[in-house]
Amino acid sequence: MLNGLNTFQIVVGGVVAAFVLLLVLGSIRNLISKRDGVIWSLVGLATLIAILQPGITTKAASALGIGRGADLVFYVAILLMFLGFWMTYMRLRHLRKEMTSLVRHIAILQAEEGVGKGKNVETSKSQNVGT
Amino acid sequence: MKQVDAIEENSLGALPTEVKARTFVVIPAYNEGPALAEVVAEVRRHFDHVVVVDDGSRDNTHAVALDCARYVLKHLINRGQGAAIQTGIEFALIRGADFVVTFDADGQHRVEDIPALLAPILNGDVDIALGSRFLGSATDLPATRRLVLKAGVWFTRIFNGVRLTDAHNGLRAFSRKAAQRIHIRQDRMAHASEIIDLIRETELPFVEVPVTIRYTEYSLAKGQSARGALRIAFHYLVGKMVD
Ligand SMILES: Nc1nc2c(ncn2[C@@H]2O[C@H](COP(=O)(O)OP(=O)(O)OP(=O)(O)O)[C@@H](O)[C@H]2O)c(=O)[nH]1
Ligand SMILES: [Mg+2]
Is residue B155 within 8 Å of B107, Cβ to Cβ? Predict the structure, then answer.
């Protein structure tokens, strides 16, 4: 079966297949989230199919009324890029929130009392707390 | 929303010492070394429990705060104004605060306005008092900044569904109950809009109180730009969508 494949299909297909394998192994061992693993493995598999069966994108494109297969690939790539950005952004937000909790916790634990502590400023007019 | 009247009667002198002693003033400060000492000194003439939250400043803010504030909290990394305020509020609650006031470090707020904010809470009318520079006044407010703030008011009307005259004012007062129930999760500037949402969700009664905001060259250089406002709107909307 490999005889029918050109060099491009073998090289890029191989890379994508390895990528999918890594994703599957990664999510099994909990190195990445199950959700990310499933989403990106499916994307990888779809890419693999498109590489091995180039005609299939054209069929899919005409079924969707887009015309050329290359156009469909282009649109899907853009959408996936946005999905990737969004997921990274969400991850970043989550990390920031965790960082804030940590920073807040330390700030409260290590609260310091200033120099003018315990003095009721109102009762002593002469006091200059600013210096 | 209820109206506040007879603010004149609630001057700082008339505010009972016992109330002052139960009030914590939270001052978030990010690189405010030049302004902080004066601001804290002014507040501490009337309120002992001044909590400065140094938000990971790179200047001498921390040293200045230790010199003049009652309590100094330090964010090891800059987390933004919303995060700093939340840290200060949590600390104040731990220390048993009955009233929490938030006050900017850049010299824009007046300590004289605090009694008017506390009055409706003391009366038991509301749990939250929000300062409004458009009910009160804003001295030397540039036209562009006014425009941005007014846009913020409209933004709040549309997205928060709350009618306010000034939606982005750092001078506020909370009852202990309100301080416990309002948990700010917007770390940066979008917390102002978030607080309005939280007020609506918790159904805590609130009031807007006229205050005076002073615009100085210093505060303007540090304040928010129109572009900054767009970023804030983005943070707010994302937060609303995903949190
Ligand atoms: N800009 C900024 N301010 C912070 C931060 N953390 C704490 N603050 C404090 O938050 C307060 C308000 O900051 P400003 O940037 O002046 O915001 P503002 O007063 O709401 O907006 P303006 O009306 O434009 O002045 C000051 O006391 C700052 O020191 C931060 O990360 N960034
Ligand atoms: Mg300011």
Answer: no
